[in-house]
Specification:
single chain; about 40% strand
Length: about 140
């Protein structure tokens, strides 16, 4: 259950911090909005038009995608799913911890082209002891 004071309905461009977007109908999707500098990035957690999960795109001025906003969500790691990604390309949906950041491996869409990147979802974390990235 979500308390009504903890959420609101709006287009995805209204997110100003890490926000979970919940669908209200079959035409909306679960998304995580992450802030990357002054831009907000939408990361789809559901399958979108047979493009797969973890499709990401900038959501600045996007009025088409809407849903219930649950701002200020936190990330919890599942220690049972941790694996070492040194020297390997982490699969889509993997969280990668490096330096003072936590990133999510996504398929990013820009100008009708997609490519795999990592989107930083948390920063200013305690520094990693090693330089190499580790996936969760």
């Amino acid at each position: 259950m979500i308390d009504p004071s903890e959420c609101f309905v709006a287009p995805i461009f209204a997110a100003k911090e890490m926000t979970l977007i919940l669908p209200r109908s079959q035409y909306e999707y679960r998304c995580l909005i992450a802030m990357s500098g002054d831009k907000s990035i939408s990361i789809c957690l559901d399958e979108v038009h047979q493009l797969g999960r973890f499709l990401a795109f900038e959501c600045t001025e996007n009025e088409s995608w809407k849903g219930i906003h649950v701002p200020g969500v936190r990330i919890e790691l599942d220690e049972a799913s941790i694996h070492d990604a040194e020297g390997y390309q982490a699969p889509k949906g993997s969280m990668i911890r490096f330096e003072d950041k936590l990133a999510l491996r996504v398929r990013f869409e820009a100008n009708y082209q997609t490519h795999g990147i990592t989107v930083i979802i948390c920063d200013n974390l305690p520094l990693c002891a090693h330089i190499c990235p580790h996936a969760f």
